[in-house]
Amino acid sequence: MLMIRLKGIGKKHQRSFRLVIQEKRSKLLGKFIEDLGWYNPHTNKSEISKDRVAHWIKVGAQPSMTVAQVLKKAKIPVPAGIKTSKTYAPKKVVEVSAK
């Protein structure tokens, strides 16, 4: 299965990221199929090839949760069914009676 992932580049604590297409089980710093653009979280800037992202999603590639958030910020449509944030179950409240 193909994934759209963020591949870290740059120095430690100064990371910027490349959006790449990779096999889901391959190593993150391993080979990738295509480079789709870049994202810099420090400046919140990105340059993403919208037509290539749309092509790969149409072919069946799944964006990771973080990539889905970046695509949403860049106003690129994310397919339905892809989570853009973790949803946590509400904490159970236990009432204790005082005797």
From TrEMBL:
GO terms for cellular component: cytoplasm; small ribosomal subunit. Keywords: Ribonucleoprotein, Ribosomal protein. SUPFAM superfamilies: Ribosomal protein S16. One of its GO terms (biological process) is translation. Pfam families: Ribosomal_S16. GO terms for molecular function: structural constituent of ribosome. Belongs to the bacterial ribosomal protein bS16 family. This is Small ribosomal subunit protein bS16. It comes from Candidatus Doudnabacteria bacterium RIFCSPHIGHO2_01_FULL_49_9. The lineage of its organism: Bacteria, Candidatus Doudnaibacteriota. The gene is rpsP.
